[in-house]
């Protein structure tokens, strides 16, 4: 906490380098959504959340984060490593045999910072609701943050949880939707249109905000605003506009980089667009 | 030995669950109950009355209920997620697999109305595949108690066991015959020792197996009757000890033959001591509407079916 916007941008630049280098090393993974959410993760882990790097599963009196769209694990792992949960050089093991950094996050390998497995979509919001209810039962002031993809909202379980949270006044919960408009098979409006998302959330009883997800000051302000809305009887949803692949020139404007790793040449071109600010992880 | 297993009354196993929950509500303040619009059927009204803040009504949204349970367990609660067995397993398999089993969450999935004996509602609700589904999941403990007393004791015991548990019980009134006592997860109960044939039974069919044992004994056949309330982890030691003596066995369960208790026992046998094993189970079929007694008879799970299976097993020795 207490970082300037410039400092946070500098951390985000390194996290983006980590994302690209992780997926390039194992020639697999999901760089597009990871890059788009790098500013959000940076703000969350370095500025917004009250969290303890000495990890314990129940996280008493801490704010907790649930990643529902587990395929953007590269940005999650980098944010966890860069904020002190484990050695940054472990990022080089991403998706490799015997690694704690599985393709999709898991508690199974006991990676510090991860509290639930995700990858099969649509489940994280329910888990976050459960954590939020548990915190209330424990008289614990912590806030639960969760992130879903926008394509992920096509899963039915999301709407069960979306109905449940306002009915039960789960107001220590901040859901952010990575609203990049793209999914594996194309644009969400073509694959299965989400329609008027804001109206849908509002009609379910959520307090809805909009946020520019690739502008650090907007992300910090937006998350602080969401935090200030906690405890007022409603869960909070942030519709976060991001660009898949941001800010790599050849990765934006398409869904092509959802789940494809760059080759050597593409990696170099991408890294040339991102300043190495904290030192790359060693291979 | 059978004298200690006298019928003392009749109550549904789900009542045992409900009464176990009432006791847990009074003794363990971390226990939280969840239900998907079936409070009356699960018999948890008293728990809710005494602990209103520790009850979560999920509505008819079982997937969300499983996820909420995983979240509650993460922050230290002991959630008991309750509904009908069909909706507690097959409907939410992926949620249980990822958010509970793979994530190793301390969630108790408590499922009533399992098997044919829910009766008139018919096959949509008569799940006969749930033991198989749940036992295949790494980390999952699977328990199918046989009467009111055992279900109540099992309910209390699983709260002290860290890890995901599937507790399976049923709808109809059923004879109470197990003496009260502490429930030990994974420890089979030898109800009667014998030399000619082993009968391994779980759930409601333990009672039918008990009756079948009496018939066989009257005909001079020495039966070893074993109550396998915990299907996973299976008490392999008890099974091997028994079959090393009897050299043939019968498995009895209100479940599909494929993937049930019988298959677990068969696996133990073929790995160590291959012996003739007869299955008393539903054979690759859905159920239908009818009374519990009619259904057990029609689908080959009656006392006579167990007697005949034991005789077949003996002949194959």
Protein traits:
heterodimer, A: 283 residues, alpha/beta, Rossmann fold, 5-stranded parallel beta sheet, two-stranded antiparallel sheet, 10 helices, 7 strands, 12% strand, globular, B: 317 residues, 2 domains, 7-stranded mixed beta sheet, 5-stranded mixed beta sheet, 14 strands
Provide a quick synopsis of the model.
The complex is a heterodimer of chains A (283) and B (317). Chain A has a single domain (5-271), classed as Thiamin diphosphate (ThDP)-binding fold, Pyr/PP domains (Rossmann fold), CATH 3.40.50.970.
Major sheet summary line of chain A = 5 strands, parallel
The overall number of domains of chain A is: 1
Order of neighbouring strands in the sheet with most strands of chain A: 1-2-3-7-6
Strand content of chain A: 5-15%
Major beta sheet summary of chain B = 7 strands, mixed
Q: Report the helical percentage of chain B.
A: 40-55%
Oligomer state of the chains in this structure: heterodimer
Shape of chain B: globular
Q: Ranges of chain A with pLDDT <50 over ≥5 residues?
A: none
The CATH superfamily of chain A is known as: Thiamin diphosphate (ThDP)-binding fold, Pyr/PP domains
Strand content of chain B: 15-25%
CATH homologous superfamily designation of the largest domain in chain B = Thiamin diphosphate (ThDP)-binding fold, Pyr/PP domains
Instruction: Give the helix level of chain A as a range of percent.
Output: 25-40%
Name the CATH architecture of the largest domain in chain B. Answer: 3-Layer(aba) Sandwich
Q: What Rg of chain B do the Cα atoms give?
A: 19 Å
Mean pLDDT of chain B: 98
